[in-house]
Design a protein that fits this description.
heterodimer, A: 281 residues, mainly beta, Porin, 2 helices, 10% helix, B: 745 residues, alpha/beta, 5-stranded mixed sheet, 4-stranded mixed sheet, 9% strand
């Protein structure tokens, strides 16, 4: 498969190079894309004094992508890109952590049996590499006008072991409005991950959009990306150990955290609205 | 000064004038405007609309009137076909000035122009523009007739017929006023009568003006007669059946029809549904108006008879040009025949003759003869003989007649490039497509052949020949065929004259003195190889163009008057926007694109100023040239304007001319089963609904490039695009076209 894609692109680029005028003579462009995935979820954050946790609106999941594209024929543009999202994990909708016991360093266990929430959702870095193929239709000449396309996307995300996971028990609701609400924090604990928590995915997506020329070098693109097929791969059998408050006391329960990583990826890999600025070389 | 000196000076002056006049026709190529371009041509139509709407005090006239009339007339003015500040329009103005000498204020309001057209017509607009066609000036017999037609058209202007006619049409369209509750047929009939009444009113007012002049009253009727027979050529002259004869080639008289279709047009023709009353009614009305009144004189000429004749002849020369461009080759030949009576050995007429006969042979060879000839039953008058003769010639005969004449012209004008170009191209045509068997061409004199034939026929024994056929080894069918022919020879009905073979002897001098047979044989081989190579190269180029676009390697290009037309959702033309966009598109073509190695000159009729008369003439000529090439379709031939394009090619330093048209329009999608599926599938419902509800913008871009060196269309590109034709988008498509034209493999 990889060979086929590579060969097709190579042939197109080599032999199709004179087939088109590109954008006012430019066949190559670099681009910066902001992808926004509409969200109806919330995000949780702690205030500075760590005595209050706030649920706020999460209007969109945002992804940034740098890309390079080449026009290979009058109707076709191909591109590769690197995308990055630095995001807060999505815990909303997941079950909270129920911690029954903590293994103390002295070998004994401390019985807790309490439910913990994410008071401040952990930061996740997601990196992805994309290959895009765009076919310009209804008379449009690549790279201007209307296109349909498909993309292949390989990506991974992780929660670094160096990051703290702040779990806690919510107290009274102190403020509530349509978009935000605040809670007292009745108990807070920091957990350190024993190792990085990773998840990867492969996605085939379709895209539709339109490019508008702005100047002789710049073009604005608006479009939508639709996932068609996605495989997620959270590393199986990995055990997540949590070190409580840096004390060495720990507990082992990876399921929710791993679910959260994949769940967050899923949210980021839904229908996205794409806004691109292309600079023609 | 002694009387001797005076006479000498007079003679000298007359001789100089006459030789100047003759030289004008000797050097004629086509009519051109001169001097400053009038303001009517350099003011934007939208500006005219705005000004005239602000000045308008007539509540019945809506904005649409000003938009439609101003844009329509400006399209005509900017076509490059309207003449100003040159002999024809100057003369019309002089006659108008005399005719309206008692209406000086009125005369100052009017502008007189001449339109290059074979139609016999004149018309006026509510703006005070009065246009006469060259077709009309070519037909008129004297200045008095022109004066009457001027008076008639001026009356349309003074009586506000254009404005009132518009209001009347609007009333009919909207069933208002007297059209209320009227059936469609009655409404059309009423409107037609309204138009006729306006014509009669213009006749009446025109006669009033005319009677104040010293022109002869009789010429009012003369003008009506000119209009009655305007469908005939500008003169009726018995066609000389030796016209195509040369020293070597004698065309037998049997090829020419013995009789002609008589002229049938009557004065009292049926004018039902027409905007003009028939000539009988107009003459009767004129008689009533004139009654016993007498005009102040009986002159046919007041301004200048000499100038009238000059103008008439110039118009007739231009008529030849126009007929050639419109591919009316036989009509052009008949006009040339008439004009050669007064202008023998005229280069323009000789070249036009070459073009006409070249065009006829080309169309005959490629099975498209009916496109350039008329049905004989529709031809009336003396030109019937010529039409009949051309129809009677078969392919080989026509080609040899053409070869003979085209060759002879190159001998008559040995250093004239134009004649040589037509002959060179035709020689190729002759070798490849004429179906003439080179071996059949005779070196013998045609008269000798006929004498030999007569004597052979007298001694020819048919029965003996039949017996010889019987005894021969020929096949059954060959024998039947031959014997049939031999028996027919014995019949009294069949007379063998040999006339049908006249063409085989028409090139005998070239065969004897110039080795024509060998020349044609070797040329044929060369052309066949050339064609084979060309076809192969074209095939490869077409395939390559399909894959990779064109790569013509052009370094300089002239873009000719780019068109932009945009239409509203209801399919009405958006005139104002079209004009703005046309100017924008011209500017895009002129932009210095950073990655394009191509110099572009744009000729744009909308951005002309008073000094751009040369550009105006060039636009007219190039459009004629291009339009004729388009009419030829896939028939590769030199256009009738080929020689005239040389001057423009030299001026711009390139022979590459491009034409482009962009047509923007809006449409709604029609509901289809796909929309239903789209709505049923929840996720695609917004798209399906949007597709149905949103008004879609489209534009179609057509561009083609022609090389004036050989009149070949080298490049054609059509884009049908579902995008709004904003400038930044158009720039991409224009760049793509220019890229294909300039890039090299």
């Amino acid at each position: 498969m990889k060979k086929l894609i590579f060969t097709s692109v190579f042939v197109c680029v080599l032999f199709g190079a004179k087939a088109q005028s590109g954008y006012l003579g430019s066949l190559n462009n670099i681009s910066f894309t902001i992808k926004a995935i509409p969200s109806i979820k919330s995000k949780w954050s702690l205030n500075g004094d760590l005595d209050e946790t706030k649920r706020g609106p999460r209007l969109a999941y945002v992804n940034y992508e740098l890309g390079y594209s080449r026009i290979v024929s009058k109707k076709i543009e191909v591109g590769v890109g690197y995308g990055y999202s630095s995001m807060k994990a999505v815990s909303d909708g997941l079950n909270y952590f129920t911690i029954d016991t903590i293994q103390l360093t002295n070998g004994t266990t401390e019985f807790i049996n309490r439910s913990f929430h994410f008071l401040d959702e952990p930061r996740i870095d997601m990196h992805q590499f994309t290959f895009d193929f765009r076919f310009f239709r209804l008379g449009s000449l690549a790279p201007t006008g209307k296109y349909l396309g498909f993309g292949l996307e390989f990506g991974s995300s992780k929660i670094k072991s160096t990051d703290d996971i702040t779990l806690g028990v919510r107290g009274d609701n102190t403020k509530s409005s349509y978009l935000t609400s605040k809670y007292d924090v009745s108990e807070i604990r920091n957990f350190n991950l024993a190792n990085d928590s990773k998840s990867s995915y492969f996605q085939i997506n379709a895209n539709i959009g339109r490019n508008y020329p702005i100047t002789q070098n710049l073009m604005l693109g608006v479009g939508m990306t639709f996932p068609i097929f996605t495989i997620y791969n959270a590393v199986n059998g990995m055990t997540f150990g949590f070190d409580v408050d840096g004390s060495g006391n720990s507990f082992t329960d990876d399921s929710n955290l791993r679910n959260m990583l994949q769940y967050t990826q899923e949210k980021y890999k839904r229908i996205s609205l794409d806004l691109t600025i292309k600079y023609f070389l | 000064m002694s009387s001797k000196h005076l006479i000498f000076l007079l003679v000298f002056f007359c001789a100089s004038t006459s030789s100047f006049g003759q030289s004008e026709f000797d050097e004629f190529t086509s009519l051109k405007s001169k001097g400053d371009v009038p303001i009517d041509f350099t003011t934007l139509s939208s500006k005219k609309v705005e000004t005239d709407i602000n000045k308008n005090k007539d509540d019945e006239l809506d904005k649409e009137f000003f938009i439609n009339t101003r844009f329509f007339i400006d399209e005509l003015l900017l076509s490059g076909n309207v003449l100003f500040n040159e002999p024809l329009s100057d003369y019309v103005r002089k006659v108008a000035k005399y005719t309206l000498r008692q209406e000086k204020k009125l005369f100052k309001e009017l502008r007189f122009y001449v339109l290059k057209s074979t139609a016999v017509n004149a018309f006026s607009t509510d703006q005070g523009i009065i246009i006469f066609t060259t077709g009309l000036l070519a037909q008129l017999e004297n200045e008095a007739q022109l004066a009457y037609i001027i008076a008639h058209e001026v009356s349309h202007y003074t009586e506000d017929h254009v404005r009132e006619g518009y209001v009347e049409r609007q009333n009919q369209k909207k069933s208002k006023g007297r059209y209320k509750r009227m059936s469609y047929n009655d409404a059309v009939h009423t409107l037609s009568n309204y138009d006729k009444d306006n014509e009669l009113e213009a006749d009446k007012k025109g006669i009033e003006i005319y009677l104040n002049t010293t022109y002869s009253v009789d010429e009012i009727y003369g003008a009506f007669q000119v209009l009655l027979y305007s469908y005939l050529p500008f003169d009726e002259r018995v066609f000389d059946t030796t016209y195509f004869d040369t020293d070597i080639m004698k065309v037998p008289g049997s090829f020419f029809p013995d009789t002609i279709n008589q002229i049938t047009q009557e004065e009292d023709y049926d004018d039902e549904g027409s905007t003009h009353p028939n000539i009988r009614k107009r003459i009767d009305e004129a008689i009533d108006i004139i009654g016993d009144r007498e005009s102040r004189g009986d002159k046919n000429f007041q301004v200048s008879e000499e100038e009238f004749n000059r103008v008439k002849n110039l118009a007739r020369f231009e008529s030849v040009n126009l007929n050639l461009a419109e591919r009316n080759y036989v009509d052009a030949l008949y006009e040339i025949f008439i004009l050669q009576h007064d202008f023998p050995d005229n280069r323009f007429l000789d070249l036009s003759f070459t073009k006409a006969i070249y065009g006829l042979a080309k169309y005959k060879n490629h099975g498209r003869f009916s496109e350039v000839t008329r049905k004989l039953k529709k031809v009336e008058g003396e030109s019937y003989v010529l039409h009949g003769f051309i129809k009677n010639l078969d392919r080989q005969q026509l080609n040899i007649v053409a070869y003979r004449h085209l060759y002879d012209m190159t001998v008559k004008y040995p250093s004239d490039k134009a004649f040589k170009e037509y002959f060179d191209d035709y020689k190729k045509e002759f070798c490849l497509y004429s179906n003439v068997d080179i071996e059949e061409l005779k070196a013998q004199n045609f008269e000798d052949f006929k004498t030999d034939l007569d004597s052979n026929l007298q001694t020819f024994n048919i029965e003996d020949s039949i017996r010889k056929v019987d005894e021969s080894d020929l096949s059954k069918f060959q024998k039947i065929k031959l014997k049939k022919k031999l028996r027919a020879l014995g019949s009294d009905d069949v007379k063998i004259s040999g006339d049908e073979d006249f063409h085989l002897f028409a090139l005998r001098d070239l065969i004897v003195d110039k080795g024509l047979r060998d020349d044609l044989r070797s040329s044929k081989n060369t052309y066949e190889n050339e064609i084979e190579d060309e076809e192969k190269a074209q095939e490869e180029a077409a395939l390559d163009a399909q894959k990779n676009g064109h790569h013509l390697g052009i370094k300089k290009l002239v873009v000719v008057d780019p068109i932009y037309e945009t239409y509203k959702l209801n399919a009405d033309r958006n005139h104002g926007k079209s004009e703005d966009k046309k100017i924008s598109v011209s500017h895009i073509y002129e932009e210095p694109f950073r990655k394009l190695d191509l110099e572009v000159d744009v000729l744009d009729s909308k951005t002309m100023n008073a000094n751009d008369v040369a550009e105006y003439n060039e636009i007219g000529l190039i459009k004629h040239w291009m339009s004729e090439i388009v009419d030829h379709e896939d028939l590769q031939m030199l256009s009738s304007s080929h020689d005239k394009m040389a001057e423009i090619t030299d001026k711009y330093g390139t022979s590459k001319f491009m034409f482009s048209g962009i047509y923007g329009y809006k449409e709604r999608s029609e509901a289809s089963i796909m929309h239903l599926y789209g709505i049923l599938l929840l996720y695609t419902a917004p798209f399906a609904l949007a597709d149905l509800l949103v008004v879609h913008n489209y534009f179609e871009l057509v561009a083609f490039e022609v090389d004036a060196e050989n009149d070949k269309v080298e490049f054609v590109e059509v884009h049908n695009v579902n995008l709004k034709g904003i400038n930044s988008i158009l720039r991409v498509y224009i760049y793509d076209i220019l890229h294909q034209l300039s890039s090299e493999k």
